[in-house]
Amino acid sequence: MDSQDVKDDLEEVLFTSEQIQARTKELAEAIDRDYADKDVLIVGVLKGAVMVMADLSRALKSQIAMDWMAVSSYGSGTKSSGVVRILKDLDADLMNRHVLIVEDIIDSGLTLSWLKANLESRGPASVEICTLLRKPEAAKVSIDVKYVGFDIPNKFVVGYGLDFAEKYRNLDCIGILAPHVYE
Ligand code: IMP
Ligand code: MG
Predict the structure, then answer these.
(1) Taking the domains of the chain in order of start, what are their residue ranges?
(2) 107, 151, 163, 172: the active-site residue
(3) What CATH number was assigned to the domain covering residues 22-73+81-153?
(4) What pLDDT shows up at residue 136?
(5) How sure is the predictor about 85, in pLDDT bands with cuts at 50, 70 and 90?
(6) pLDDT confidence of residue 137
(7) Residue 80 above 80 pLDDT?
(8) 106 lines ligand 1 (CB under 6 A)
(9) CA 107 to ligand 1 centroid distance, Å
(10) Distance from the CA of 37 to the center of ligand 1, in angstroms?
């Protein structure tokens, strides 16, 4: 679906699908360059990062392996609970591998700082983070994010994998959800 299909639910379109694709290509070029000659495992965080993983992985020129993890930090609301649970763990062994976590969004940074520490405890050669979106709060947390697509305002956004109560993930752009939808 596109922004016209949900126009009453969006306050504003932040990034069109073309803008997302263009930025994804730039991130992929940086990753290709930084990981040249390295064995990389990209880890997608379900479910939000599905679209980012699909497009970022295809924009990469190098051979990579892909794995998935599911964690939960939010219920169906719009505020972080601060509690992280592993719903699905990785299949891959991380020992001596270069791991790149791929996320849709970093808000408080709680999920990612927990996840990074968790993966670092498994003996990898390195663990880095790539996120398509980052909110201002996250910039205050001391977590080192190597690749950021866009810094965005502190608003609840949906689309391109990001949901509100499991809806809007299949929206092709990223938009600010109108408050009347969740208030
Ligand atoms: P954090 O722990 O606060 O950084 O939250 C990270 C997770 O919360 C993300 O992986 C998303 O699933 C979810 N999240 C945070 N902000 C938004 C948003 O604006 N829209 C949709 N989901 C969000
Ligand atoms: Mg979510």
Answers:
(1) 22-73+81-153
(2) 107
(3) 3.40.50.2020
(4) 82
(5) confident
(6) 77
(7) no
(8) yes
(9) 5
(10) 33
